[in-house]
Amino acid sequence: MTGPLRPLRCTVITPYGALGGSERWLLELLDAGAARLDVVVWLLQDGPLRAELAARGASVQVLPTGPGGRSVATRARDLARRLRRSDTDVVLANGVKAALVAVPSARLAGVPVAWAKHDFSWDRELARPLGALSDLVVATSAAVGAATGRRDALLVPPPRPAGTPASAIDARTFWAAQGVRLGTAPTLAMVSRLVPYKGIDTAIRALACDLASRWQLVVVGPADPSAAGEETRLRSLALDLAVADRVSFVGEVGQVGRWLTGFDAVAVLTRADGTRFGREGYSIVALEALAAGVPLVGARGSPEVERMASSAGRVVEPEDPGSVARALHDLRRPDVRARCGAAAREIIVRHPDGQACAGQVIGALATVAGRPGAGLSGPPVTVLTCFRDEVGHIDDVVAAVLRQLGPHDEYLLLDDRSTDDTAAELGRWAARDPRLRLISGPGINLSAARNLGFSEATRPVVVCTDAGCAPAPDWLAALRAPYAEAAPAELVVGVYDVDGGDPVREACRLALFPSVDEARRRTPWVRLAGRLTGRRFDAHRLDGRSMACTVRAWELAGGFDVALGSSEDAVFGEAVLAAGAGSVLALDARVTWAQADRLGDTARMYLKYGEWGARAGSWPLVRRDLARAGGYLLAPVLLARGGTRTRVAVIGAAAGYLGVPVSRALRGRSAPTTLALVPAVLAVKDLAKAVGCVKGGIARLARPGERSRDGG
């Protein structure tokens, strides 16, 4: 049995070396997801974060990148080159500057890219284009994600703090060692980088108000290179207001959340700064205050901070010292602080922990990379292979599957009324291992055979591959692992290679079928060609040579359509999705399929695909087939009668259609004969499917309502 699926190779690009909120989010993700991730981190600025990453075993490289547009563009070109040379599965851009550098470079290199969006900075200028170019947007809240225009943004808040906060006595002892005396007066804490829009100045001004005259302020956090001189400005402000003796700056403190229990309140007063920054996306400091049972003073304008503060503290106006002073006046009473603390603990208990949040993020990253379940082992499954007259093709597939079975899996060998010795050969295999079971099929078609296999399965997930396919060593692990995700899809679409050999089969391999390698490196050209030609693997387009599906989804879809003599897999996949089940693509679930030896057999196969796709009324299949046929009919007319621009457009379209298979042939140094056959086999396939589509459409019109899902 194969073990867990290989961990996800993830390249993280993060812009700053300081330990701010987004950096702490990243560290928590790496801590909780260590078993699932193989991480390389590219830092665009050096700082304490590098040591924290190295301590977690991450490979770290500092690539200094300035704030200007030229520096960002230069780094983006450099990252594109680096990514082309890498073996990474997915890129995670941690923050807006990281996305500005990483998203375009990853797109050019063809590597799937996700953007972790933490706040509202640069929303007007960058959020929508970066969101559109990203394969995935992970946002800390709905408000943060809204600016990207991505309705499918994954909303994952920062996790609740891990560990147990220190006791109030231990916390006061800790702060005393930092030079801060607690207990003599109520104390407000602010944990923040020293930048103007964080509102530390508002808190200092609040201390000068009569209502807050008993309070002192402790500011915990480092200076920020973008706001040089901010600490000097704040100290001068405190002196001018005669509150300097009640304001302490203690710099950066490790694991500060553990020690917040020593304070009487924690403030998050971030405000919009009138340019591109300000407002909190989802404040980790606010979560730490709630975990410590300390009241939260939160500024209006940051939705998640407002929500927490309204229940477990006080909501204040972000630039109104009087509002903050009134909140502190209310919170001076121990009974009020106790009620806020109880509400804080109720909120934090319901908040997801690190494992849950990391599971969502890593699961989404793995899915975007085409590797759902990376780093996981899935549940026991039923494997199903249907055979009819397959003597000579049995041993390879059965032996390959048997090597991958777990102790609690089962393997159904379905003989669909073979006329040769297939049943006897399968019986000999079944006698060798109790996990193998031979069943007799209905002898109708593959749809009916598959339906019977699903009905006989004793496991909730059924994995299928055809006879004539050779599964790769990690094929079964790649199809079972997605079902170990926290929110698994019900349909897992595998992939296939086709064999080559003679020039005709080589040309067919290059021209007619999608490429697994291209699916892993989806450059702009590969993406465009896949859309235009249909030669691509897609989570929403099923090919039964390699797939897994829950029995529940099979039931919801009504099973495989037994009225279909071909295209049953694609139609079944559409029915599963129409029933509301989700699907994912698993690029590790690879089989090698033996294609037909002769071009005539290939043409007849595609004619059947076209016919039965039309008989099933599958509009996506019919649309593609007729669009390509229309191109063959119109192109000669347009070349003969069109103007120069029209002829150029037709030639360009033809070149684009042939571009991917020709480029494959050139990269693989195929023989000239193979290259010359590429246009011919493409034409044979397209015209055969078009003829079959017309034939199937006529048959459907002649016999409406023939669709049936019985017979299994």
Task: Write structural notes for this entry.
It is a single chain. The model is unreliable at 707-712 (pLDDT under 50). The chain is 47% helix and 15% strand. Strand 9 (216-220), helix 9 and strand 10 form a beta-alpha-beta unit. The strands form three sheets. The protein has an eight-stranded mixed sheet, with helices on both faces. The protein has a seven-stranded parallel sheet with strand order 3-2-1-4-5-6-7, sandwiched between helices. The chain contains 27 helices and 21 strands. The chain has three domains: 8-159 and 354-366, Glycogen Phosphorylase B (Rossmann fold, 3-Layer(aba) Sandwich), CATH 3.40.50; 168-350, Rossmann fold (3-Layer(aba) Sandwich), CATH 3.40.50; 368-605, Spore Coat Polysaccharide Biosynthesis Protein SpsA, Chain A (Alpha-Beta Complex), CATH 3.90.550. It is an alpha/beta fold. It comes from Nocardioides donggukensis. This is Glycosyltransferase. Residues 383-505 form the Glycosyltransferase 2-like domain. InterPro entries: Glyco_trans_1 (IPR001296), Glyco_trans_2-like (IPR001173), Glyco_trans_4-like_N (IPR028098), Nucleotide-diphossugar_trans (IPR029044).
